[in-house]
């Protein structure tokens, strides 16, 4: 049952809970469906995720390692691909209870947040992962032959992709803080020295590799995102 936009007709708490249950069920059903599809096409997904490794040979170091890693990758992929629909279902549930002003704020923020998250994943896949892996492969390649565990490699890639996607939410956090008048664009600009230090620390935490190249690239990306957040707030006169 959908909530009506006419607020003269109020829904009972049980009707709200029933609608929430239905939307959660629909989102969960889509998540399970996409996860199963991803598992069935795991060879294709594995091939895509292996591209940044530049032809490195992978080993299965334990019984069932490939199977359990495939399950993990399918779950992550299912969560990733179904997340926009899940957010859409949540939005449909909360919008009828919001004012027009609140809706005009929340909907664009959610949309931009989703776009930035996927931009972060693409950035990590195209730029960060190849840079990190190239450094790790070349370092000591005349002494040791790079042969990696299938599970450990995918843990590395998945962590890098998701952490970078989350890091790309920095402008969203800034905009929310600016709209709520907690920090203004002038305040954020005034702390630029601390932000440079913070971006260095954050990039070291986010990137699973310890190579300087990846951390420098990530630091530059964080500073760029932070600057873009300030620019947006200035445009909004916040």
From TrEMBL:
It is a multi-pass membrane protein. InterPro entries: Sec-indep_translocase_CS (IPR019820), TatC (IPR002033). Keywords: Chloroplast, Membrane, Plastid, Transmembrane, Transmembrane helix. GO terms for molecular function: proton motive force dependent protein transmembrane transporter activity. GO terms for cellular component: TAT protein transport complex. It comes from the Eukaryota. PROSITE patterns: TATC (PS01218). It is found in: Membrane. GO terms for biological process: intracellular protein transmembrane transport; protein transport by the Tat complex. It holds the Pfam family TatC. The chain crosses the membrane at residues 24-42, 73-95, 107-133, 153-179, 191-210, 216-236. Belongs to the TatC family. This is Sec-independent protein translocase component TatC.
